[in-house]
Amino acid sequence: MLRLSCPFCGPRDEREFHCGGQSHIQRPGPAEAVSDASWGSYLFDRINPRGHHAERWHHSFGCGRWFNVLRDTTTHHILAVYAMTEPVPDMVQSDSVA
Amino acid sequence: MNLRSQPLRSQPHRLPTGGLIDRDRPLRFTFAGRRYTGYAGDTLASALLANGVRVLGRSFKYHRPRGLLGAGAEEPNVLVTVGEGAWAVPNLRATEVPLYDGLVAAPVNCWPGVGFDIGAINNVFSRFLSAGFYYKTFMWPDWHLFEGFIRKAAGLGKVENLPDPHRYETCFAHCDVLVIGGGPAGIAAARAAARSGARVLLVEQDAVLGGRLNHDDAMIDGLGAPAWIRSAERELAQAPETRILRNTAAVGYFDHNLVALLERVEWDPARLATPGQAACRFWQVRAGRVILATGAIERPLVFGGNDRPGVMLASALRQYVNRYGVAPGRRAVIFTNNDDAYTTAFCLADAGVEVAALVDARKAPEDLAAQLRGRGIALHDMSVICDTRGYKGLKAVRLRDASGRMGWIDCDLLGMSGGANPTAHLFCQSGGRLRYDEEQALLRPGPAVQAMEVAGGANGTLALGPALEEAHAAAMRALEGMGQMPAAIPAPRAQASRTATITPLWSVAGGKSKAFVDFQNDVTLADIGQAHRENFVSVEHLKRYTTLGMAPDQGKTSGVNALAIMASLSGQSIDATGTTTYRFPFTPVPLGALRGSATGPLFRPVRRMPGHACHAALGAVFEEYGGWQRPSCYLRPGETPHAAEQREAAQVRRAVGLFEGSPLGKIEVKGPDAARFLDLVYANTLSTLKVGRCRYGLMLNEQGVIIDDGVAARLGEDHFLVGTTSAGADRIAAWLEEWLQCEWVDLDVVIAPVTAQWGVLTLSGPQARAVLARAGTDIPIDAAAFPHMSVRDGYVADIPARVMRVSFTGEMSFEINVPADRVDALYQALMAAGADMGIVPVGVEAWMILRTEKGYLHIGVDTDGTTNPLDVGWARVLGKKVDFIGKRSLLRPADQAPDRLQLVGLEAMDGPDHLPVGSHLRLAGRGDGSDGYVSSSVFSPTLGRGVALAMIHGGHKRLGEAVTILCAAGERPARIVELASYDPSGERLND
């Protein structure tokens, strides 16, 4: 059970949030110009890294806002919380992660 | 004092004095059908031992007679069911059940009884039941042939098939410092933190603080142990932000310092029956820092026959003697590889138990040997116990000295000690790894990975003085880590003690009897050897192949021995062998404690519509639809529900009905880009909608699957009201937010879910307009001024209202939205207005009949997680110019395949009976398999026959074709028809 810091409400228990999965996915378009392969990749291909993972979270039982979280999947350390419109912060992977 | 000289008493093994028990409060209890007495302060285990009951259960696999091994959470053998009937709780350790008057307990794994157990035949055939026997023995010809027998024999305990009457509570807490373990180290840490002003929570699984001080007296800060504990308790009780939870086990350590606790509040069913009396509380504590002071658990020694009743952990013997005033046997032998067990020999001798010998695998330390001599106890050092005798209780142990000479020593009690090991389960659950300490022969915590300190026995610091100092320092570090100022106070000081030593002894070969490593799962030394021979190299594989360390026990007494044996077999170091994963929970947690009070009517909130009281007064039968309590129908005297539904549906077609649709989702969408946004989220176009008009739309997900439908109304150029299904109200609002916040962040739109703010009453039927007029409205409601699919604001019956002409019945309908708290008034007004026009209240079931007659699809009933708009006849969305969610997926060939399941109407050809919903069907000329299924089916009172909707492969091109319905009653002929069976042209809507 993580403890996440909502950028609008402050630190809260994970049960107040909902994880929306991998963030920063580009939605391809217009529809007619997108190949089956790239549409399939957009729909289904997700990274599953050992280490840093940028994902979006929703404060469902709070302010209702979406935001990004950079989380280490091996330690569950929360490395950064940042706005939906911001790029992934530049972070060096910790030594414990190959 | 010699026990045998005592007069015969009801508790023959109770010592005449001593123990933290209240001899003035005798308690009666029953075990396995026999009556006994014990004292307040006893556990079930100590009371049974006081009564001389030795065989307390049967082992899991071989059904061998077993007695107590330990005295606390480490006990692997004596699992009992406590209580009777619905109050029965299985799989409790007798060592953790406090005695209460009238307690009824039974052993869990034996039939017909502990004395004679049919399953003990497994002991004879044990060569077929060795490690991995499931995988080997029951392969041929088919596992399923054996499964029934195996399942019957498997598992521990029995759960009554009755509702659980216990009350369970859920608690949440935050603290600066959570101290787990109320032994000397935990007390020292909690005191240091509390004195510094921190918010401290101290939890102890026992009923009393003190841990080992309750059976091993010591001088701390010049006080005897009881006095020191009392003074610490007083101080902690007075600290303003400090709380002590007794009878509370920390069972789980999760991410970011979340610790789960199980507090046992009350055991006695007589008191549990009091309303509001909790049995357990399940705590979830978020701690700034955790101090783990969980102590250490003694390891058994592994030798032949080490499981006979009467073979116990040496430290447990001291607990029974000193804490409970019980002599666990008459004539004892001690077998050890370390100094600590000498204390047990002294303790037993001082309590009047004859100690026949102390057997030390090492060369005995000279000072301890001298003390033995002083008490007249025979010492056999450089010797081992290699076997034992006595089926239902220990009779003798077999000694083997350094030269290999053997001899039997008569005894009924053997105290064994293989050294102590830190109770590091929670440390491992927190993500930490253990390291092997050669000098002390134990696995101790490595670096902490969460905000945690480990102190005392849990850290491998077994001696009292250093443990107190370490705990004090841990509290100081914890406070500093949180930026708090620790108070300048000294650590508690204990009398200096000699340095204890140990020489590892992982197993003793040469016994004829089985040598057990894991007592609870019946895993022997031979099983580990076999696993090794069969090439199970990883400890995780060993665990699964042999079941070692699994189940409630979680390897408390067995884990380290097993690793060490594995390591010696493979020639690897213990560190390289590694440990298995210790899992939540540390001790068993009742499932009821996890669910807390969320059961029955509290399982989830009941949602009632604003007009609930009106419906109840009219005889509504309430059922749950999408989380809401809604009328399924309104029963008249003597009416069946089916008759009521038919009557209500017919009356809507004939005159008028009143239906409450308040749960329908309502989401306001506003902003300069509102129309553009809705074009993106609906499969059809919304931007062309005129102000004051409504349009039905479908929403898809990115896979092109229909996720919701509803009517959107344009209230202004930049203002829409999006209607969703009742079940989709919350989900679709969240879905729209996600797209706005995460994808189309540049769109200038805000959304507001207003479902609960508005109540909705729908008048439907040819008389709907007349009723509305009679109720009174300032909205022009003639067909020209207020056509079908339009929206108007105004007043109805003097209540501010937003009225939409939309229909789910195929009849002229006015959907009247009013503030939720005015629904009641509007309901009365409309019913009064329509009284002489035949108005009836209409329930959900009649509503479903009406929509099925019209072929209107119901999302989630006619559609599923594969249905796209083309499947329901909306191929026109492919022509939409602008992008929308799911559009690209609809361009995939598979989404346009002609043989997809498509929604059509269905008519039975063999009479008026309606077809069973869910029936599969077969097209003409097809031999087997399914060509589709009936998705909706009702009896139409207006048409006098059944009408149905179905999903059929390639159905759109098969209009008029015959199909065979496969149902329980046999095969029925039907044919594919248009979706709408009633008023297909929709004339009735435009009146």
TrEMBL record, chain A:
Q: Which InterPro entries match?
A: SoxD, SoxD_sf
Pfam families linked to this entry? SoxD
Q: What is this protein called?
A: Sarcosine oxidase subunit delta
UniProtKB/TrEMBL annotation, chain B:
Q: Where is the SoxA A3 domain?
A: 512-594
**Gene3D superfamilies hit by this protein:** 2Fe-2S iron-sulphur cluster binding domain, sarcosine oxidase, alpha subunit, N-terminal domain (3.10.20.440), BFD-like [2Fe-2S]-binding domain (1.10.10.1100), FAD/NAD(P)-binding domain (3.50.50.60), Probable tRNA modification gtpase trme, domain 1 (3.30.1360.120)
Q: What is this protein called?
A: Sarcosine oxidase subunit alpha family protein
**Residue span(s) of domain Aminomethyltransferase C-terminal:** 902-983
Domain of life here? Bacteria
Domain GCVT N-terminal, chain residue ranges per copy: 612-878
Looking at the keywords, is Oxidoreductase present?
yes
Species for this entry: Sphingobium cyanobacteriorum
Keywords linked to the UniProt accession: Oxidoreductase
